Amino acid sequence: MTLTIVATIRFDDYKIVNDVVKSGGGASNVNPIEFLGLGGTILIFLAFFFNDSKWIRIGNIAGSILFVIYGLMIGALSVWLLNGACIILNVVKLIQSKQKDKEN
Q1: Cys staple from 71: which of 11, 34, 40, 79, with CB 3.0 to 4.6 Å?
Q2: Tens digits of residue pLDDT in 80-100
Q3: Domain co-membership, 23 together with 46
Q4: Neighbour tally for 74: CB within 10 Å
Q5: Are both 46 and 92 inside the same structural domain?
Q6: DSSP 15-78
Q7: pTM
Q8: What local confidence, expressed as pLDDT, does residue 25 receive?
Q9: Are residues 98 and 63 in the same domain?
Q10: 77 and 98: one domain?
Q11: Is residue 6 a contact partner of residue 19, using CB atoms and an 8 Å limit?
């Protein structure tokens, strides 16, 4: 069975057409844009190994930034919209936490 997926990406009026997966598979055939998504996944996953909520939020912000870029590049509204909202929420919570620490 041969699986071929062709992705057409429009980013700033520049059209890129790549074979994402070619016959035979393997990492050498993966579209480089996928590494943004993988990087975001790894950062968000690793963030949960921290005990301090500040560092969990910072790791999630970093991963979400990669996912926003990834979502924009592949044209996935749900990906960049959700992760953009997560960035805003995490930044607000970090600010609130910092203000609460100053009061104590």
Answers
A1: 79
A2: 999 999 999 999 999 999 999
A3: no
A4: 19
A5: yes
A6: EEEEEEE-TT--GGGS-TTHHHHHHHHHHHHHHTT-SSHHHHHHHHHHHHHHHHHHHHHHT-HH
A7: 0.70
A8: 53
A9: yes
A10: yes
A11: yes
